[in-house]
Amino acid sequence: xxxxxxxxxxxxxxxxxxxxxxxxxxxxxxxxxxxxxxxxxxxxxxxxxxxxxxxxxxxxxxxxxxxxxxxxxxxxxxxxxxxxxxxxxxxxxxxxxxxxxxxxxxxxxxxxxxxxxxxxxxxxxxxxxxxxxxxxxxxxxxxxxxxxxxxxxxxxxxxxxxxxxxxxxxxxxxxxxxxxxxxxxxxxxxxxxxxxxxxxxxxxxxxxxxxxxxxxxxxxxxxxxxxxxxxxxxxxxxxxxxxxxxxxxxxxxxxxxxxxxxxxxxxxxxxxxxxxxxxxxxxxxxxxxxxxxxxxxxxxxxxxxxxxxxxxxxxxxxxxxxxxxxxxxxxxxxxx
Length: 336
Description:
The protein is of the alpha/beta class. The chain has three domains: 5-60 and 96-164, P-loop containing nucleotide triphosphate hydrolases (Rossmann fold, 3-Layer(aba) Sandwich), CATH 3.40.50.300; 169-206, Helicase, Ruva Protein, domain 3 (Orthogonal Bundle), CATH 1.10.8; 213-328, Zinc Finger, Delta Prime, domain 3 (Up-down Bundle). 53% of the residues lie in helices and 8% in strands. The chain is built from 15 helices and five strands. It has helices spanning 8-19, 37-49, 63-70, 90-100, 122-133, 153-157, 169-178, 185-193, 199-205, 208-227, 234-237, 242-260, 273-282, 285-304, 310-327, and strands at 26-31, 76-78, 110-114, 139-145, 160-164. Helix 14 packs antiparallel against helix 15 (310-327). It is elongated and about 75 Å long. Mean pLDDT is 93; it is low at 331-336.
């Protein structure tokens, strides 16, 4: 698994707590996607399981380390939803709990990694809570999440909360440049800001095909604003990754509000300033705010409503947006 320089400090801090006998048996790591928390948790797991630790490092040579490197350590458990499912039910938690109360097969620590704690159903969370309240000896639970408020309060209270913040922008820009990603420094800055400063997420966005998809959406929006035919945006939005594409759209609208307030330095889309200016000129602050709310509601429906007709929902929202422009005094092209 890859390692990233911004993880050095949190790794030393967390492993230092365990080395000093102050480590918590249940760690809840809160991180934005793309900050590499899986690498951090794996490294901590290796240290906890290692039989011949070298200070803050795992030795890499003992039997437990070799099993971890091979991905076959019997006392290292990953608790995640089955492929294709978005929730983790109670049965896997019960089965794991029974396993944990048996002796460690390698005679050392037992480690459980829960990559997406939000996937736990309420019943599964309550079952895990019982194990956290009375954990087996030498057993450690490492949970990661995107939004702690989506977890049961009782579950959060049994864990040590740790926020893995994004690295400083300047350091992330240096790292992206060292990776040899395509794009200018302005592109890199935009990609970082669109992902709360998370370098790995920015790197994925900067891949040529993905970056072109975003550029095409921005170009379509500029053209739609000029013609006031917002349905031109439908081919750019109507994709399986619609949630991220709507994130790009909402970020542009939010940037337009910042522009109106003289806060251009805080614009996320640094590479799309002419488009941001155009949005700021075409819509009032209240209209921009209402647009953001409507698009976020649309995004929520697309993510949460089972069997929703994506094309129909997007079409309805785009037509509603057209009406907003018409009400603001801009003529629809078909009425000319």
